[in-house]
Amino acid sequence: MSHDHEKYRRLIAAAQALAAVPVAVAHPCDESSLRGALEAARERLIQPVLVGPEKRVRAVAAEHRLDVSGLQIVDTPHSHASAEAAVALAREGKVEALMKGSLHTEELMGAVVKRESGLRTNRRISHCFVMDVPRLEQPVIITDAAVNIAPTLQDKVDIVQNAIDLARTLGRKEPKVAILSAMETVNPGVPSTIEAAALCKMAERGQITGGVLDGPLALDNAIDLAAARIKQIDSPVAGKADILVVPDLEAGNMLAKSLTFMAGADAAGIVLGARVPIILTSRSDSLAVRLASCAVAVLLAHARRGEAGKAVA
């Protein structure tokens, strides 16, 4: 399946209306990661700072005829050092986002979460996919499919809040949040339904702000209004969810990949809750996905400055 990426094009256009953001690209030592950073720079989204072994970076550029002239390269001996140097640039305020290169996600995130030298805040770090699903009119956010393996209820408070803040940055004034489970009724034998109910009550009491929560909801009645009506679910969220909060990483990963490989969707990835947004890309990502991921980071960086533009989603 293929589509015209209209939703991503709106995100990219909104980011291009703002100033390009300095981004540390950690270990761009293969063609896809280096090309992705250069394409994002060409589209006036980011100002890449390449952090990695300079000889390897220049060799990759020469082999694939990529122009890195004029770009700052921070020389490092290996991938672990690249991650630490990229994080240091963010701590020093020299860059406003990080971008994963050809190193493992665990290496980059390991440097990010270090207590003394990392980028921790009082928020739990979490991942969001901003999904462009062809049959849906608006982008849908899925969280957390890449960072938190088996989040606790307290973890989920931050996971939900991170996603709400992201959705608001992307233009959803009061995003609708569906807390997913296998069913839409509270069942003591299914822990995710208990946690969904607790999260909704916490939102009522102001412990989660900025969005409208409902759950537990099954996937069908979270995104399909007809399914919600058939089951007679009276909810401001059912059938209209902007954010899908999954029970754990396995569920989120399978949901995102099912949408990608069986429904023709695309998944732009971003990590939230650190001092700066972190762009997570995969070697298999298309150019549209890479640019959309960068665009999301740009919008988040400008929101931190108080310069976010008009609603785009």
What does this structure look like?
With 313 residues, the chain is of the alpha/beta class. It folds into two domains: 160 residues, Rossmann fold (3-Layer(aba) Sandwich), CATH 3.40.50.10950; 150 residues, Isopropylmalate Dehydrogenase (3-Layer(aba) Sandwich), CATH 3.40.718.10. 41% of the residues lie in helices and 18% in strands. The chain has an eleven-stranded mixed sheet, sandwiched between helices. Strand 5 and strand 6 form a beta hairpin. Helix 2 crosses helix 11. The radius of gyration is 19 Å and the shape is globular. The model has no long low-confidence stretch (mean pLDDT 93).
Q: What is the gist of this entry?
A:
By secondary structure, the protein is α/β, with parallel strands linked by helices. Helix content is 41%, strand content 18%. Strand 2, helix 3 and strand 3 form a beta-alpha-beta unit.
